[in-house]
């Protein structure tokens, strides 16, 4: 069952679903529009092999990160971005993450992304550039998150390596 705006407001009011900071404007008909944070990490082209199984791999060599209120997404480049909002998802919910349709119509793309029941943190999302440069601003509603109630509460809620993340979370290795 997908939660409506009424359901979402009820979950938020009861503090079952925590959204901080909360702004009523992000509540949509069947989801929440999360806003773009000011942290950006662009994946750097390299011929070096990234070994996700080695704790000796210097992850930061493969990313160029900065903070900005406004930035340009270069054509065909890949970025990691974060949300303004910090979420705490109860174990009876999960969520599907989509790019807002206006941004998708500009040719921007995100991979299929799910938020697990029990997850807590800001969302780090990969974004692939369009065929032309696109300017984005921090604070823009950029992700549409659709919450669904699972058939029964999750027995082992998410407690993985990205639990509690703030800002852009680079890959945590080894796998």
UniProtKB/TrEMBL annotation:
Keywords: Hydrolase, Nucleotide metabolism, Nucleotide-binding. It comes from Ignisphaera aggregans. NCBIfam families: dCTP_deam. It catalyses: dCTP + H2O + H(+) = dUTP + NH4(+). Pathway: Pyrimidine metabolism; dUMP biosynthesis; dUMP from dCTP (dUTP route): step 1/2. PANTHER family: DCTP DEAMINASE. Belongs to the dCTP deaminase family. The keyword Nucleotide-binding applies. DCTP binds at residues 100-105, 116, 158, 165. One of its GO terms (molecular function) is nucleotide binding. It comes from the Archaea. Homotrimer. Gene3D superfamilies: 2.70.40.10. Its EC number is 3.5.4.13. GO terms for biological process: dUMP biosynthetic process; dUTP biosynthetic process. It is an enzyme of class 3 (hydrolase). Catalyzes the deamination of dCTP to dUTP. This is dCTP deaminase. The active site is at residue 126.
């Amino acid at each position: 069952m997908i939660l409506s705006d009424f359901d979402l407001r009820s979950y938020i009011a009861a503090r079952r679903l925590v959204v901080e900071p909360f702004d009523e404007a992000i509540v949509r008909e069947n989801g929440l529009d999360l806003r773009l944070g000011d942290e950006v990490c662009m994946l750097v082209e390299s011929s070096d092999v990234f070994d996700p199984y080695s704790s000796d791999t210097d992850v930061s060599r493969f990313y160029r990160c900065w903070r900005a209120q406004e930035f340009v997404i270069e054509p065909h480049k890949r970025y990691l971005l974060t949300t303004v909002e910090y979420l705490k998802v109860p174990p009876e919910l999960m969520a599907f993450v989509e790019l807002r349709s206006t941004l998708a119509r500009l040719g921007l793309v995100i991979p299929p992304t799910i938020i697990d029941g029990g997850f807590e943190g800001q969302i780090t999302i990969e974004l692939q550039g369009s065929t032309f440069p696109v300017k984005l601003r921090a604070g823009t509603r950029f992700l549409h998150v659709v919450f669904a109630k699972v058939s029964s509460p999750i027995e082992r809620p998410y407690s993985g390596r990205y639990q509690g993340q703030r800002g852009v979370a680079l890959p945590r290795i080894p796998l």
